[in-house]
Each structure stands twice: as C-alpha cells, then as structure tokens.
Task: structure prediction
Amino acid sequence: MKKIKLKNKEEIEVGKIVCVGRNYADHAKEMGNEVPDEFPIIFMKPASTIIYSGDKVEHPDYSNNLQHEVELVLLITETIKNGSEKEAEDAIGGYAVGLDMTLRDLQFQYKDKGEPWTLAKVFDGCAVLSDFVSKEDYKLKENENIYLDVNGERKQTSSLNNMIFDIRKIVSYISKKMTLEKGDLIFTGTPAGVSRVVKGDKIKGGIQNVAEVETEII
Ligand code: MG
Result:
C-alpha cells in the first residue's frame, strides 16, 4: 500500500486519488475544450500508481506523447459525505504538489471514440507526489504561485487563484458523489503550458510555500 508523509507528522496510507480536469480556463482552451462552469470534470487514478519526488517516471512504450501537468494536491484527513463547503474546508488536512502525468495521444484517441480515457491517465508512476504540509503548519492562501520547469525551462506558471472551482467547491462536490475518507487525495487540475516530455527530461514543479516535486523520464 502507498503512504504519504505529512511533514512533522504521521505517515498516512493513501486511499483513492480523485482528479479534477479543466480547472484552469487557459488550460481548457489550450486543449480545445469548453471551460466547465457548473461542475468540475472528475476522473480517478489508483493509489498504486503513486511515486514520490526523486523517483523516475518510466515512459510507457505504447505512447508517443507523455505530458506533464503540475497540480495542487489535497489530503483528506476526515471522512466527508454530502459535505458543505465549510465541512469540506475542515476535511482538508494538508497540501502537496503533484504531477498528473498524462498520455495525451491516447487521451485524444479515446475522446474521439467517445471511450473512457482511463488508460491515458493511469499507468505506474503517473502520480508523482511531493511531501505533504499539514494545514496546521501552513494555511494555504490560495493565491500561491504554481510552476513547472522542464530541463530548467519554465513551461507552466500560474496562481492558485486562477482555479475555476476552489478547493472547498471541489471537495464538497466530490463528497456528494462518493464518500471521501482519511488518506484520500485530490488532484485539483493544471494550468496552461502542458508539454511533451521524452526520456532523459528532468522535471521540477512547485507551489510557493508548499513544496517542490522532481522527477526524470526514463
Ligand atoms: Mg490533470
């Protein structure tokens, strides 16, 4: 079972990983998608796909377009079902920065055929995580910078206040569809600037005052 380390606190076993798609308008547009206005787009990754900062991403041989997506990741530390935004706030216990690694060619193929794009988002190493910071140690202001460099070149940069659905709306919404439990993680979507990476590329992403995450494609 995969665990995450909460800085200065305990290790927590990871339950499920719920991800939000198209949560920054500029990224939705660069993908040629409509900007969602009513509800976030939700998909999932199994916890077994997690790797940690410093580990390497093995490029799947059945894709020619592996892309990076840097995202704020929320840690759920209290059970929440049908929760209000206030209850959602209380259920969020920590934050990290993560990489939602995506097989973009497969995602477009599946979308074109109207099939689920699960396998474009799920492969070993597709969820790269930094350490987590507990909200007692750092309370997110939600205007922190989020950024990602490939081989030292800046590719993604934005502010968390550009998210279409804020963290309370996301957690409240998901909790109305499925119970969230301690150890569940939420990937909250990526800003514009996603790009293809190949073997040998080194990626570093971060969120101001939260953490950095590094990996290499092999
Ligand atoms: Mg994503």
In short: The mean pLDDT is 95. Residues 19, 69, 71, 100, 187, 189-190 surround magnesium ion (CB under 6 Å). The CA atoms of residues 94 and 134 lie 4 Å apart.
